[in-house]
Amino acid sequence: MRTAFFLFAGLMLLASTCLMGQSAPVANPKLLILGHAGSGFFTPISPFNFRPPSSWRGVQHALDLGADGVEVDLQLSQDSVVILYHDQRLENNSTGRGCVSEHSAAQLVQLRYRGGWPYDWFHKEQPITFDTLLARFSRRPTFPRLHLDLHEDDQCLPPAQQAARSSVLIRQLARSLRRYQVPLQQVSLVTQEPTTVRLARAEMPTLPIGLEVTADDITPGLGQAKAEHVKTLVLDAGRATPQHMAQARAAGMSVVLFGGRSPKSIRKTLTLQPDEMEVDNVRRLLILQGRRK
Fold it and tell me: pTM of the full predicted structure?
């Protein structure tokens, strides 16, 4: 069965490559390329990705391909340890149940990521802590670009508790960044909450911050970013428009776009001329930028 799968995947990849053609790269030498949630999400073809989102193996793969850095998703455990995990529910993507906030860090790092067939044939990944990530990064010759996407909307907590958890999350992030002497110019904090922007500024005044705006009309979010003096807007590549980009540029903001897996979607994103891309297909974007064959 495994042989049949590889044959099928190979044929599909060959077909998609032929259909896409070999047009010239759309190069932007200033573009910073980051792996989205490490090296993206489970995908069957183009590319076949068996690495769980925000897993260590996914992070390592994106950097090995040549990405400038990675975006990772962060949540707070029950005992206030920062954990890399993307989904709101553990059962969506692992052997656990409930939310990250309902379990200790010791319990969470013993879970197994689960993507189903055929992905789980190829990995034995487990969630890691933010401190583990920083310890491994600190051993690299240069510290990579790192976007920290804060997942503060917890389905398992009442709204009144979520603000308090955000405050703890920021304090724990600041502690870890100081402990590992992380160069803050290499890090960006990404949040959808203006209150979190203020919390982060109080703890880490020099840390770059991006406000993520997911609505089709970005005007209210842009207004919040201006009010908080945020210099970076983070937008979904699949929903961003030239008008959005023009609005952000007129406000003097840089723009990060996240998403994009197929060559077509990545090319479309490149036409918007973002400053940074958190992409689901690092290899393809690097090829389109002339940085990889």
Answer: 0.92
